[in-house]
Amino acid sequence: MKNLSENIQYIGVDDTDIDLFEGQYVVPAGMAYNSFLIQDEKIAVTDTVDFRKVADWEANLEKALAGRKPDYLIIHHLEPDHAGGITRFVELYPEVTIVASAKAFAMLPQFMELPAETKKLAVKDGDTLSLGMHTLQFFTAPMVHWPEVIFSFEQSEKVLFSADAFGKFGVYDADPDDWACEARRYYFNIVGKYGAQVQAVLKKVAPLGVQTICPLHGPVLAENLEYYLGKYNTWSSYVPEDKGVLIAFTSIYGHTAKAAEVLAKELETAGVEKVVVSDLARSDMAEVLEDAFRYDRMVVMAPTYDAGVFPVMEEFLNHLKSKNYSNRKVGVVENGSWAPMAAKKMTEALSAMKKITLCETTVSIKSALNADSTAALKQLAKELV
Ligand SMILES: Cc1cc2nc3c(=O)[nH]c(=O)nc-3n(C[C@H](O)[C@H](O)[C@H](O)COP(=O)(O)O)c2cc1C
Ligand SMILES: [Fe+2]
Ligand SMILES: [Fe+2]
């Protein structure tokens, strides 16, 4: 779906040659920077795009405008993946009024210098802006994903412009049936820390009767909205989405990897709903983090390294902490050849997270599995079933 309706047109751009989104996320299916044109007595443009794609966006904008001039530029989110075209837009249309939160206007000069005479309209929670038949109502959405974020709701067509919320990795025309996987990876890695703030804004928009959601990334959502709202409600409340065990391991010589396999078999044989085994050094860590949040149980397995824990596991645990990983049951398996320390380090890191229930059994492997450590691994498996 390119155009939403007669009056709301898509003018965003797909980015299929970006190597890493936000400096760290692989996006094999590309990335969309969404922007829309609302044409009525007054004309509003919602957001711009990343610097990388401003020229393409400008072409889309001019074509859709067909000679008319826009009155407003609505900035829902000032992050550079959406704000790259603001300077160019004001150059093209110096008469335009920029609409954003007061926080966005405070931050804007850090990113760009606009002419002093540029008109600005700061909007607060609940404010409305009439375009004719169409009216935009604004809602602050602080920390979904930055402090200056606003949502807007177009009242006549019941369209919610939801900033980064409901966004996903991948292009605009992505298959909606495949939404959850990349939307979940996007959510937990990019917005995941701010579950409470997402919950707050979901409550604000609940009574509006939203019929279409226009996020800043990924496809427009126009059908089956309960599904998407339900997913966001689950994710933002830190409740596990599915029953299952993620085994996140790392290994230098292969013995911890072997133990991960043995544990997975044990869990599968015992009837665990879903077992996912991920080698941290060879996986997209953002994907492993997504699975950690998706399932209700996790086992972390790592060798000792210079009296600490192997670096990629340390990094994984840091990511989990920073994204507010909580409310899950976790088992710990270490390996070490002379003075194993990994379990202590992993347990410390997990203990700094909220509502983590550690399994009673911690498994310590001395170089390779033997009868004792295999028995301990089986005991751990029992605790996880
Ligand atoms: C650079 C380096 C540092 C290590 N530091 C420790 C250590 O401090 N204490 C220890 O018990 N083992 C240490 N080890 C040994 C491994 O933790 C141990 O051999 C373990 O069994 C490896 O498990 P894997 O077969 O899954 O790779 C170190 C290994 C390497 C390569
Ligand atoms: Fe963002
Ligand atoms: Fe974004």
Automatic annotation (TrEMBL):
Q: Which residues form a coiled coil?
A: none
Q: Which GO terms describe its molecular function?
A: electron transfer activity; FMN binding; metal ion binding; oxidoreductase activity
**Sorted alphabetically, which InterPro entries does this protein's record hold?**
Flavodoxin/NO_synth, Flavoprotein-like_sf, Metallo-B-lactamas, ODP_dom, RibonucZ/Hydroxyglut_hydro, Rubredoxin-O_OxRdtase
**All residue ranges annotated as the Flavodoxin-like domain in the record:** 245-385
Q: Which family does it belong to?
A: In the N-terminal section; belongs to the zinc metallo-hydrolase group 3 family.
Output this protein's name.
Answer: Flavorubredoxin
